[in-house]
Amino acid sequence: MTELRLSSLKLRNFKGIRDLTITPGGGDADVFGDNATGKTTLFDAFLWLLFDKDSQNKKDFSIKTLAATGAVERHGFEHEVEGVLNLDSKTLTLRKAYYERWTKKRGSAERTFEGHTTDYYIDGVPAKKSEYTARVAEICDEGVFRLLTDPSYFNQVMRWTDRRALLLEVCGDITEADVIASDIALAKLPDVLAGRSIDDHRKVIAARRATINKELERIPVRIDEVSQGLPEVAESRGSIESSLKKIRTTAQDKHQERARLKAGGQVAEKRRQLSEAKAELQMIENAAQAKADEERRAAQQAAGDLTYRIDTLTQKIERHENTIASNLNTVRRLEADMEKLREKWRTIDAETFEKDMEEHDTVCYACGQDLPAEQIEAARQKALAAFNRSKAEGLEKIDAEGKETKQRAGELSLDNERLRKEIQELEAERDKLAEKKANAPAIEDVPVSLPAEHASTEEEISKLEAEIASLGEGNTEALATVDAEIADLKAQISELEAKLAQVDQREKSQERIRELAAKERELAAEFERLEKELHLCETFIKTKVGLLEEKINAKFQLARFKLFEVQINEGVKECCETLVNGVPYSDLNNGSRINVGLDIINTLSEYYGFTAPIFVDNAEAVTALSDTRGQLIRLVVSGADKDLRVETKTALKEAI
Ligand SMILES: Nc1ncnc2c1ncn2[C@@H]1O[C@H](COP(=O)(O)OP(=O)(O)O)[C@@H](O)[C@H]1O
Ligand SMILES: [Mg+2]
Fold this sequence. Notes:
seven-stranded mixed beta sheet; binds adenosine-5'-diphosphate; binds magnesium ion; 14 helices; four-stranded mixed beta sheet; alpha+beta; single chain; rod-shaped
């Protein structure tokens, strides 16, 4: 146990106090004074000395002496506190001086304000601020110091959570195991918690319960929704599925049939190609036939020409032969004529003038008298000459005629000779033609010659015929029928599928309803389980509360603590309230507050192993102050004391 005691405290120009020294000498002291005489200022000074703060825990309070106007009364003071402390058996003197810093520039009469400075002294030796702070920190932590020097600090300055934490720290919390062990009913709890803290578990339960509640509210609504949306189904799944199966099979067959028919469609196309090819073949053949016919006609023509020419030649030959024959006749007649002429010539030639005068010749035709002889001679001579002349003329005429006839016969013979020669030529020509005719091929034998195209077309035809044979029969009409049937089947299938989908949906919805109902039951069961768990948690907490408060309260004489608040909903809320005889701190009178504060300081001093001077402000409120382990400095209002008066207890409290 470290004890810190105040031996003396000296204030100079501190918060309006010019100069004051109290010397409790490490023992208890009572400080009397009227209001505003500086009692509280003493505590401020003590705290400022150690921690730079006043009793209100303020750092920026005005140390410097202020005038009634609020302004600093006079500059240039040294504001100073010096404390002589007994730390166990050792003495420690701490001094702090706070003052304005003025500097005078060289060559200037004016001094200028540069701010404030604090000087630190440890045992009269100037120290750096850091050294000073370190030395104080060595003695005690500021927070602890505040707790141990001010009876109101715990209850009035600290936050309740810090208070609670401190109490639990000081008294030791109770472990869950301790709580569980204290009540057989709590044995199940560890399993329930599954490693979570009670608090966390309660939060989890609360959250879960809220969720469950919400879900439980929602589920009937959702079941309702699903029920309303349940599709009406007239047919059973089995019946729909079997119809569907049947129709699908039929559809499959139809598809196969269609495929076959489709192949038939190809046959139709092939057939078309085939008939085209055949038509083309026919055309080729017709063309070939026409060509052959033409050739035949030409041949016939040629044969006809030959015959005609042969006939013509024969006729000409015959005509020539006739001419020859007629010429020969003529020649023979001419030769007979010539014989006759020769006969005639000879006759004429043989004729002599011996003829008697004819009467008329001897008689004058005019007078009819015989003419004289001479006259008759003359007349005979004359007649002879006429005779001879006539004879020559006759001969000459025959000669001429004979010559002419002979010439004519010669001409005809020549002509015949020419004709015979001509006949020979004609016969040769005719023979040539006849031979040509004989050699000409029979018209029936003129061949029909087919072009190469014919063979390739025939080849194509046989190929198409083979393909058609392999493809089988096709029928566009049948294809259309099958297509219609397939379309109908498809429609039936989609209708059935739609029905099936409805059945599916109905089943799904029903399943969903079942699920929701199951979920509802599950949630209700869980809710019940959570209720039980919650109850268990609460039992735990109440047990823990009981145990903890018991444990903590045992540490204090006067103070009792309420650490949990049982709420209306049976829940438990943490709190921290100091009670005295069941009365909460806030309702206590000043005296009780001070005493309970001192009680708490005693326990805390014990805990920290440290005591410090306790400044009890308004100590006049208490007639009987609780005993304290630490040095007690009572600040007492006393109207009679216009100046502070200090009564020190003679004896220095002995360490117990
Ligand atoms: N910096 C200051 N300069 C001058 N007077 C001050 C200063 N700070 C506080 N005071 C005054 O000093 C007086 C002492 O106050 P306080 O110590 O609280 O008196 P008590 O606790 O004895 O009632 C008060 O009247 C207060 O107004
Ligand atoms: Mg006061």
